[in-house]
Write a structure and sequence with these properties.
single chain, 166 residues, alpha/beta, Rossmann fold, 22% helix, 31% strand, globular
Length: 166
């Protein structure tokens, strides 16, 4: 979700996966397509759509790096429900979410607290939950506040914090 330059898509296809890459920017989709070797493009499906209007196909893995927080808070709960429904049993989510202290915060993007993330992943098993909360140069400004999550949809175990960067 939010395929950007197609790096994740390329790696997954090279490892034998069939991939659906989603972005609302034509340039991102074109870059992703061109990055894939012609003999492997049959393993790629591209979807040009904003997350707010997206119908997600079933998946064993959903990757969303630096993308979901760009969904409006008005649409995020419905998007998150779609993501949970799309992930097959035993499937995984890997991605990140901007925290409330991130420099980018505004009312156009979705931002989260640790408790929000734990609640979102209550039906997943924790593999990684890392909170990065530190000063430094960023795309969004001068402060990183990001939650990185890898979670497996196998049971109703709560997601627990595994590490915190400060």
């Amino acid at each position: 979700m939010g395929c950007g330059n197609g790096a994740d898509t390329f790696l997954l296809i090279e490892k034998g996966w069939t991939v659906t890459s989603i972005d609302f920017q034509e340039t991102a989709l074109r870059n992703t397509y061109e990055r894939i070797f012609p003999d492997k493009r049959s393993k790629l499906t591209l979807i040009k759509e904003k997350f707010e209007y997206l119908d997600l196909p079933k998946a064993d893995l959903v990757i969303a790096n630096d993308s979901l927080s760009f969904c409006s808070p008005n649409y995020f709960p419905a998007l998150w429900n779609k993501i949970q429904d799309a992930i097959n049993p035993e499937g995984r989510f890997a991605g990140n979410f901007f925290g409330q202290k991130d420099r980018l915060t505004d009312d156009q993007h979705s931002f989260f607290e640790l408790d929000d993330i734990k609640e979102m992943f209550r039906d997943f098993d924790n593999e990684i939950l890392l909170e990065k909360d530190e000063a430094g140069p960023t795309v969004s400004g001068e402060l990183w506040h990001i939650f990185y999550v890898v979670a497996n949809k196998t049971s109703h175990s709560p997601l627990v914090e595994t590490a915190k960067g400060q």
